[in-house]
Amino acid sequence: MREHNPFFLIAILAVFAVGVSVINFGQDVIYEIEDYDAAISKHASLDDAPLRPIYAKGLYLTASSAAQAKKRAEIIRLIGSTELNAVVIDIKDFSGYILYDSSLPLANALHTDRDVLKNIRSVIRDFKKAHIYVIARQTVFQDPALVTAKPEWAIRRSDGSVWRDYKGLAWVDPTKKEVWDYNIAIAKEAARLGFNEINFDYVRFPSDGNIRQAVYSNLEENKTKTMT
Question: Number of helices and strands (H, E) in the chain?
Answer without folding.
Answer: 8, 4
